[in-house]
Design goal:
Oligomer: heterodimer
Shape of chain A: elongated
Radius of gyration of chain B: 20 Å
Largest sheet of chain B: 2 strands, antiparallel
Shape of chain B: globular
Helix content of chain A: 55-70%
Radius of gyration of chain A: 25 Å
Strand content of chain B: under 5%
Number of strands of chain A: 5
Distance between the termini of chain A: 64 Å
Structural class of chain B: mainly alpha
Strand order of the largest sheet of chain B: 1-2
Chain lengths: 222, 254
């Protein structure tokens, strides 16, 4: 840096020189800062924010790929999402204290049907993709070690949507355990719905309800 | 004059709802994790009524509107009505002592009314003056007033006692009804409602498909959304600890 300043100094003199080198110093500092921020992100390439960014990028790439049919897109997105969402933890959180009242078979069935339900419902969006993309707006560590990654879905034809992802460190790395859309947590929302059904009825009935709904809403295979 | 009539209609709706509240059987709340809903019987009835008005009146109109209007126009009309809400948002920010936000709201209004051609465009957002969502229900919540029982209002939809009451002062703060006739106010409101609904046709359909119990899904979403707005996006720590704790079940599962 001193060399650069010296080279600068040979061309300029007096106040102008000082001013010029000050700007040079400033811009180098800024560049250095940007560089260090970059390297922080690079160091945490498997951190929660990176996981969300990579997942979002992968999903958008599939959605924007015009050579794929809807069914193919849905299958590929399912694969990407299944790899980064922890549906077992999600199910435990959704059923809360009722989870331990279920037999291992019921637990297994519930996880599968709930996963299927989310996939069937949100899989429909594949047809209506309209150049939306996600940008990460921030992240923070929660008191129990989870991380929240805040994103904004930019929609060219409508207002932006704020979506937060809550991730937990599991054996396979950081996994999504909740999605919070405009302040509404998916886990809390399903918990309140299932709570009603489980207090007035039982787990078999809930699994049956999910199964029926999934059969009805199954996207048509073409 | 017009504002009086307008708010009287809202007040009537509110009193009517409270009347239902008084008649409802008490003690239906489940405690634990279910959302408290002491007047669930009344609310479910009103929800059923609103859902039918929505399905058979509002959605058909909004569907035609959505077909006729290009997305850009729908968005611009939405911007226009957002800009009209400027006094409500600004006054409520002031009432919550959020002076910086209030200042930015004034800036937004000035920019969008002039450069944004009477509010049809939103250049202010591009210039870093972000949009705020504030109303009197949130102001009350900010100063510690609890929401009270969940309350489904006729036509107006999901609310609670606090937010329902907040609609009355917000009606006074809207300002523009003071200057235009009653017919214009009602027409503007109708256009606003149809236009807004037309932008959420798919979302509501999806929410219905995604929910196992639509009534409690909407109730929970309303309660969560309002809490998040009052706290400006921060979930209270105790709640989040309860929501994300699986430890209780660990020995049974593994």
């Amino acid at each position: 840096m001193d060399k650069q300043r010296a080279r600068c100094g040979s061309e300029q003199t007096g106040r102008r020189h000082r001013k010029r080198s000050y700007y040079l110093f400033l811009s180098i500092t800024v560049l250095l800062c940007i560089g260090s921020v970059r390297s922080v992100y690079a160091a945490a390439s498997d951190g929660p924010a990176a996981v969300v960014q990579q997942t979002a990028d992968a999903v958008v790439a599939v959605l924007a790929n015009k050579s794929l049919a809807s069914d193919q897109k849905r299958a590929q997105i399912e694969q990407i999402v299944y790899a980064h969402f922890d549906f077992t933890t999600l199910s435990k959180l959704v059923l809360a204290r009722h989870w331990k009242e279920l037999s291992p078979e019921q637990q297994h069935d519930f996880v599968e049907e709930f996963k299927r339900h989310l996939s069937v419902t949100y899989g429909r969006n594949v047809e209506t993709y309209n150049n939306e993309h996600a940008v990460i707006t921030g992240d923070r560590e929660e008191s129990n070690g989870d991380w929240t990654v805040k994103t904004k879905i930019i929609r060219p034809s409508a207002a932006d949507v704020l979506v937060d992802y809550r991730l937990r460190k599991q054996d396979g790395g950081w996994q999504v355990i909740d999605v919070i859309i405009e302040g509404v947590s998916l886990v809390a929302n399903f918990r309140s719905q299932f709570q009603e059904i489980l207090t007035s009825s039982n787990a078999d009935h809930l699994i049956k309800l999910l199964r029926e709904k999934n059969a009805k809403g199954e996207p048509l295979k073409s | 004059m017009t504002i009086m009539r307008r708010s009287r209609a809202q007040l009537l709706a509110f009193v009517f709802a409270l009347l239902g509240l008084a008649c409802a059987p008490a003690g239906a709340a489940d405690g634990d994790q279910a959302d408290a809903d002491p007047i669930e019987g009344f609310n479910r009835g009103m929800f059923w009524f609103n859902d039918h008005v929505d399905t058979y009146v509002l959605v058909p109109v909004a569907t035609v509107w959505d077909k006729v209007m290009p997305n850009r126009v729908q968005r611009s009309i939405g911007n226009f009505f957002d800009n009209l809400r400027f006094p409500i948002v600004t006054i409520n920010n002031l009432l919550q002592a959020k002076f910086k936000s209030a200042g930015s709201d004034v800036g937004r209004f000035l920019v969008n009314t002039t450069v944004g051609v009477a509010g049809f465009f939103d250049p202010a957002s591009d210039w870093g003056l972000e949009k705020h969502n504030e109303d009197f229900g949130q102001t009350l919540g900010y100063w510690g007033v609890p929401p009270g029982p969940y309350l489904v209002l006729p036509i107006l939809g999901p609310s609670d006692v606090r937010d329902g009451a907040g609609l009355v002062p917000d009606g006074f703060m809207a300002v523009y009804p003071w200057f235009v006739g009653f017919v214009y106010t009602i027409s503007a409101r109708a256009v606003d409602v149809v236009n807004t609904r037309s932008m959420y046709l798919k979302q509501v359909e999806e929410a219905k498909a995604a929910s196992i119990d639509y009534y409690s899904a909407v109730r929970n979403a309303y309660i969560q959304r309002r809490k998040s707005l009052v706290n400006d996006g921060v979930i209270p720590k105790e709640e989040s600890e309860d929501l994300y704790n699986v430890n209780v079940d660990k020995e049974i599962v593994e």
